[in-house]
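Hello again, I could really use a second opinion on something today. I've been puzzling over a protein and I'd love to understand its fold better. I'm sending you its amino acid sequence along with the backbone structure tokens. It would help a lot if you went through both lines with me. I've dropped the whole record in just underneath, so have a look.
***
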Amino acid sequence: MKNIVIFDFDGVIVESAPYFIKRYRKLATTYNKKFDVKNMEEFRDWYDSKWENNYFTMGFTKEELENAIFKTRANVDYYDIPHYQGIEKVFEILSKKYILTLASCTCYSELEKKLKEIDSLKYISYISPGDGHGSDKKEIIGDVIKHFNISPQNAIMVGDTEMDIKSALANGIKGIGTAYGWQNYKKLEKAGAISIAFKPEDIIDLVEKYFESVQ
């Protein structure tokens, strides 16, 4: 069997952070909470990939958490969120040598819809979605390994947050961090990323170098 590349969605395939910054800001204004982030650099430093914690940082209580999350995520339409230019080429090139999969906290319908829109669903062999899950992705990533019944060393995770990297490592899988996403390279390296992509095209060489190193 070919080696497997597991992609996260937000911050790797789609440029969704600016969209959600607006939603966090609107939420803070509506409920008189704190959100002083001014730009992407500040957001990458502020954002906690155990995203439930972000609401506590803003001043929401545990009792208010469920409603705050709902208000942030209700009616999100990924047609309104752009994909990163060049990611389709990454899929096209890597799919010739590897099995490409997706593991994301986003629901299946939105993942499928966006991949179809950018004509990339044809490259993805399996999707493990976040329907019913919180921010912890250990089970979501583990589902990919179980589905293909492969050794963790025959897979690599590509993600943009500490949670992506740590959840992959919890499954015995190494991770490549994308510093163009929701968190900066310092957080990704601290979480244990073996390498950093600063643009989508970087992913190709980093994936190939990893699998060459474990042959």
Summary: The two ends are 14 Å apart (CA to CA). The first strand starts at residue 4 and ends at 7. The chain has a mean pLDDT of 94.
